[in-house]
Amino acid sequence: MVFSSNVFLFLFLPIFLGMYYLVGTRYRNLLLLVASYIFYAWWRIDFLALFAAVTVFNYWIGLRIGAAGVRTKTAQKWLLLGVVVDLCVLGYFKYANFGVDSLNAMITSFGMEPFVLTHILLPIGISFYVFESISYIIDVYRGDTPATHNLIDFAAFVAIFPHLIAGPVLRFRDLVDQFNHRTHTVDKFAEGCTRFMQGFIKKVFIADSIAPIADHCFALSDPTTGDAWLGALAYTAQLYFDFSGYSDMAIGLGLMMGFRFMENFNQPYISQSITEFWRRWHISLSTWLRDYLYISLGGNRGTTFQTYRNLFLTMLLGGLWHGANFTYIIWGAWHGAWLAIERALGVNAAPTVIKPLKWAFTFLLVVIGWVIFRAENLDVAWRMYAAMFSFGDWQLSELNRAQLTSLQIATLILAYAVLAWFGIRQFHAQPLSGAPKAKASQDDADIQVSGNGAVALQGAWTGQLRAVALHAAILLLFAASVLKLSAQSFSPFLYFQF
Predict the structure, then answer these.
(1) Residue 174: enclosing H or E segment and its boundaries?
(2) Is residue 276 pLDDT above 70, yes or no?
(3) Which of 329, 421, 428, 461 has the most CB atoms within 10 Å of its CB?
(4) Rounded Cα gap, residues 115 and 100, in angstroms
(5) Which of these is catalytic: 119, 322, 428, 471?
(6) Could you give the angle at the alpha carbon of 380 between the alpha carbons of 391 and 325, nearest 5°?
(7) Annotated catalytic, 322?
(8) CB-hemisphere CA count at 13 Å for 323?
(9) Are 397 and 220 in contact (CB under 8 A)?
């Protein structure tokens, strides 16, 4: 089951929310767990057993670590056991096919018979729930959170359906208090509905509309320079609106249930360095990699070379986490190399002024990286790169023009206009360097003109009308997106494959 489906919108979600607010507070976490398991089992009920087993195992490991004491030798042994088992589960389901295929490619080149392995199906969301389980037992070992004795709360944390399939990557220590005490208000519920609708519009109205552009361009056997750049730019926009749309929907659903999840995106395409990009893109994953991988490798506590090595290895492994393909490994190495270069050059990762050349160079690096991230294999990636940088025919090929529609191109232009508008506005309103800049909120306006009651009243009315107009536009676009969803047969999220 996915958020962008009629069965979720008109069956699962209304029934769940109705029951959620009818049952007492005591049983809401249990209901959330049961609903999340139903949500997951809608895809494959047999993999629900694996999901539950991983949950119970890490719950037990957490208790063992907690009983042994913070950072003790015994606790370290239990932690090692937990991490090894978690990674073995992830490695088997996610990388066994890749490993056997790579081995077969090598041994067949020497004339040997290849190994035969039944294709292993990748359970949806396994990367996310394994990472969350690992973060929990590491936090217990470090003393950042006590080991929980409430299996229902822990299982609900791992399985909570808003973030189950494609993140954000949550941490038990950040949500444990909300599982015990969370507020349910009309304002929070309304905020959640608005956020969900915004994400739905991003996904269905924008991402799904420009997805065929990227698909057509990457499928061309002989793309022109124009085809290749169009495909690269289309995928760059598609991936952002698809994944950030999912995150918005997850955050919105959490608010409807009283939870407040961490933000996962902060206008990444306005970044002026790769370091800044990773502070704005998939924030929950980048902070997870920093806290549990980069720091564990030594962080910046060693020599300068070791710091660069740790940065590179962190992103290399982060690329491998995305999938069992050399394309992801190279993509991770690409970003890891630039992170190390920027650290060596002392690049400012929290600029306060937009410098067009730095922004353009960073955006180019990101787009180049997305090409190999999107490519099915190295041959497709090479074909796209060769076309992009041959600077030959900038016209679209006849085959590509025949498949594209004016609506798709218009939506792509709209997507980049939205990125530019909201990106620049966010940059000036809340830079990464510190607290948000002072901006004239409605309360500020009322204070500034408090000497003139008529002006204050006019400002209040203007703000209310603007809010009403904005919510009306969101509602209309959401309705249009629902109609569009009903007209199309399938609307998968890109990050389901990870």
Answers:
(1) helix 172-180
(2) yes
(3) 329
(4) 7
(5) 322
(6) 135
(7) yes
(8) 19
(9) yes
